[in-house]
Structures are given as C-alpha cells and as structure tokens.
Specification:
- The protein is built from five helices and five strands, in the order ββαααβββαα.
- It is an alpha+beta fold.
- Strand 1 (19-24) and strand 2 form a beta hairpin.
Length: 172
Amino acid sequence: MHGKITPTDKERALHDDDFIVSKTDLKGRILYGNRIFIELSGYSERELLSEQHSIVRHPEMPRGVFKLMWEMLGRKKEMFAYLKNMSKDGGFYWTFGHVTPSFDDRGNVTGYYSVRRKPKAAAIPVIVGLYRAMLEQERKAGEQGAPDASLNYLNHFLEQRGVSYEEFVLGL
C-alpha cells in the first residue's frame, strides 16, 4: 500500500508526553494501534489493522536495522531503536522505539509489542549520519545483499567504538 507514497520533507513531531503503542502478530501484521499511532501515521484504524507494520517504514530506514530487530526478537530479546517512520501523506516522524516479544503463559512468543516515544533531539543527527552510511552500503550491495551489508556496517561501527548496539542507542 505505501509503495506508491512519495516521501516529503514534512515532519510530524511527537510531543514530549506522546507514546505510540502498537501490537503485531508473529508476522508483523498490526493487531492494535493507539490513537497517537493512528493520527501520526495518517491512516485510519481500518487501513492499519492487518497490514504489515512496515506500512509506516520510511525508505531512509536501513534494512539492516530491521534485520537486527528480527534477529533479536527471534532470540526473545527486546530491542531499542531510532526509527524514521513515514505517514500516509509522505511526511515523516522520528521515534525512539522499544520493541519486545509478547509471551503466553508457557513462554512462547505470541506477537510483538512496541512503544515509541519522542527521540532525543541531539541523537537524530548522529542516527541520520549512521543510517545514511548504512543505506550507502545497501545500495552498493544490491537488493539481495542489502540487509547483511548494512548490518555488517553497523557491527563494524560499533566495534570501532567498543560498544554494544544497546549501549550505543541508549547512550545517545
């Protein structure tokens, strides 16, 4: 659905006390989105429900970030990330997201829960530079190798700084 949307430079900003909440099934299809998620996305609740959460993925988000996310979630781990989302009108909004698996009473993953809030303003220029470099690696690698290429770049970036991914994002 959102492949036809042309990104614009119109930014939608979260307020300090805004929290975007969404819940997905195991395949990333939206089961629930709170009012703020619906408003910022520009989609109606009906348009969002059952769609892949990637409906709000901005093309300036490196695929390697999502590869890392799915790897972490597959190990039943939570992930924090700076995310650039795209609304239905092509506008964008930055969030600092916390994605975690949802479990049943036997410890089986039943879906995923995400809470996103306003990111630290000082972190955005750092993240933009990192994501640009990751996207450049994706372009060089081509469609098939893009996620691995950008994730490899991210891992090298972290190694050079002597920090884990979590230490990096939480330290911004």
